[in-house]
Structure formats: C-alpha cells, structure tokens
Amino acid sequence: MGERMYVFLAHSKGPAALSVSIAINTADPLIDTAGSQTSGSGEIDMVATASGGDGSYSFAWTLLSENDPQNAFSINMGTVNRSSGAWNDAIVTTTFTGPPGPGNDPPLPAEFTVRCTVTDGTGATATAEEVTRAEAL
Backbone phi, then psi, for 116, in 5-degree steps? Predict the structure, then answer.
C-alpha cells in the first residue's frame, strides 16, 4: 500500500467539534504514454474519515486548484460524493503523446489540490486538503 498522510482540520459548531482526516492509499499517477494518455481508475485512492459532530456524515470531494505549467493535463474527478468518504476513481489525462525521446520531451508534472468537505446532520462542516501529482512519460 502507498504512503499514508494525514491532515487534520476542525471547525466547531455547537458542543461537539467535527473533524476530518485524509488517508492516502495511492496517489501520483504515472502515465505511460507509450500505451495510453490516461491514468487508470484507482491510481488515485484517498479516503476521508470524520469524527465528532453528530455522527451523521456526508462527504464531498472538490478540485481546489491545479498547477499545470504547460497545460498538459486534465482531471476527471469521478465519483465525488460517497458515504464511505472514498475518492478513488478519478482519471488524469495528458495531451502528451509518447513515447518520450529526442525532440519529444514529456511535460512537467502537474499537481492537483483536492478538498474533502464533511458535513454532519447539524450542518457543521470540516475540510481537509491533499495534493496529488501526475506525471507523463
């Protein structure tokens, strides 16, 4: 399994603080452009976990920002509202056609900052952000 990283942010509304953390199972897709110009579904796999609040949670993943200096990548966010907190079917596409070689350099990697917003049954919210990086070769 990939590296796990946790980000904790909390927002208090009422007596119980709601918080969310993100566990990274896999991230940073590497697109082998000799065979395809897209990453596979599941190459980005993150799960948000909530605690506090009233215990009734909904999760919403959004693209917060994109750092793509050469405009060579795009991301399809996939399913962004799962009751499990999982976000694992995004697909990254590149405009680069490989394979790389003399005169056909791959683009610089792109970074996508995603945010998970958790809302509980009282309307309290908490957010956490994480970065995934895409690279083509």
Answer: -110, 125
Do residues 80 and 27 make contact, with C-beta atoms less than 8 angstroms apart?
A: no
Handedness of CA 46, 64, 133, 19 (dihedral sign): negative
**What one-character DSSP code corresponds to residue 94?**
E
Per-residue model confidence as pLDDT tens digits over 21-43: 888 888 888 888 888 899 988 89
Q: What is the pLDDT of residues 44-82, one digit of tens each?
A: 999 999 999 898 999 999 999 999 999 999 999 999 999
Per the structure block, which two tokens stand in for 130? 């994480």
Task: Give SS3 for 36.
Answer: coil
pTM of the model: 0.81
Closest-CA residue to 107 (of 80, 61, 67, 58): 67
Hey, which residues does 47 pair with through a beta bridge? 23, 86
